[in-house]
Structure formats: C-alpha cells, structure tokens
Task: inverse folding
C-alpha cells in the first residue's frame, strides 16, 4: 500500500531564505505524487504534480519539487521564501484506485 | 478559471440530525471524491464516484454516509445521523482524468 511521510510538522524560515519541505513516499508501483497548499481557512490548492515525466517539476508561486526514486523522496523547495508562503503544505501519493493518500502536513512559518 | 464549489461553508447541526453537504464539481470532470480533515489531523479519503456509482469507499464511509449525483452538476454527501466525531472539514474534489484532483474550499461541519 502506498504511504507518505512528511518530516517536520513545523518549519520556520526567514523571509528570503530557502524553503525545503520534506516528503518521502512508499509505493510498489511508479508513483504519481502531488504537493498541495492550504492557506488558513481555505481549501487545498494543487501546487505541482509528478506523473513520471521530468523528475524536476515546477509548480505555481515559484515552488518546485524533485522526484528521486533512489531516495523515495519528493521534497518541495523554493529559493526565496515570501511572507505569503506561510501555509500548510501536504504531500500526497495517488494510490492504485485513484484516491489520494496524504501526509500529515507541514506548517510553514515565514519570519520577517 | 473553473473551480469546485461547496455549500454551505459552515454547517452546525445537533447530534443525530441528518446533514447534506453540496458540491458543484468542475463541469467537464468525470471523477468525484469526498475527503475529510478532522481538526489537526491529516486529510482522509472517504469515497470516490464515477459513472454514477461508487468506485471505492474507505472504512470511515459506513452506512451512515451516502453520496449522490442528483443532476448533471451537483454531487452531494449525506450523513444520516451525525455523531460528534463527524465534526470535520469536508472537501469535495473532482478530476477529468482520475489523477489530477481539484479541491473545493470545504464545508466545516460542527456537530454539537
């Protein structure tokens, strides 16, 4: 069965600093992987997705993620954090019956 | 840009009452889903729906839950007799090709 582990329930960075949110997956088949963002009191917005094409995936708002099969990882990065990036970020894997399996989420805090 | 909409945004109900949560998926999408997020916990899959029938349901989705697509645009989740533990944010999602799911803003259900 597929699963997702997000290391770090909270990550704090300074504005302008690199953002790195970690996600490791477990899947017996080539995975489809996703990052979603949830701003306070809002729904889930798709940031980016990996669907077995390019291993470096670019998403919205300057975020990108790299699929590393050898490390079973799909970490999310952004070179320079902005105050507006403060939100909760969820990594998810699509299972064989097309339902999303979510990680526990990482809350990103951006300090001025 | 088309989006998934959900009504109401917040529903308060008493234990034992029936509630219906409504969703309007993106118009040309074929796959529909309900997920929920209990406060402070991860997003969990409830049910998927395709071709006018349930494709898959989780252990959470017991006989108290039902889904329906009463017309060409709405997708509803009914909880027959609500319990305190049903209090959560309920998200509807839809997708065109089963793997890229777009989420609505959610309905916060509070059972008292």
Result:
């Amino acid at each position: 069965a597929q699963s997702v582990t997000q290391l770090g329930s909270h990550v704090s960075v300074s504005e302008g600093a690199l953002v790195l949110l970690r996600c490791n997956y477990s899947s017996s088949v080539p995975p489809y992987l996703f990052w979603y963002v949830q701003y306070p009191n809002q729904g889930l917005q798709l940031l980016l997705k990996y669907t077995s094409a390019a291993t470096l995936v670019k998403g919205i708002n300057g975020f990108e993620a790299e699929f590393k099969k050898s490390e079973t990882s799909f970490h999310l990065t952004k070179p320079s954090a902005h105050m507006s990036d403060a939100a909760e970020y969820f990594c998810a894997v699509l299972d064989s019956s097309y339902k999303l399996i979510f990680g526990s989420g990482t809350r990103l805090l951006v300090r001025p | 840009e088309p989006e998934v909409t959900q009504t109401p945004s917040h529903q308060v109900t008493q234990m034992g009452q029936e509630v219906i949560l409504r969703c309007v998926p993106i118009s040309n999408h074929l796959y529909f889903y309900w997920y929920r997020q209990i406060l402070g916990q991860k997003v969990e899959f409830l049910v998927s729906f395709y071709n006018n029938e349930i494709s898959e349901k989780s252990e959470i989705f017991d006989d108290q839950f039902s889904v329906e697509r009463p017309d060409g645009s709405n997708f509803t989740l009914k909880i027959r007799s609500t319990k305190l533990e049903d209090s959560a944010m309920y998200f509807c999602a839809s997708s065109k090709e089963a793997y890229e799911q777009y989420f609505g803003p959610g309905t916060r259900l509070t059972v008292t």
Notes: The first strand of chain A starts at residue 3 and ends at 5.
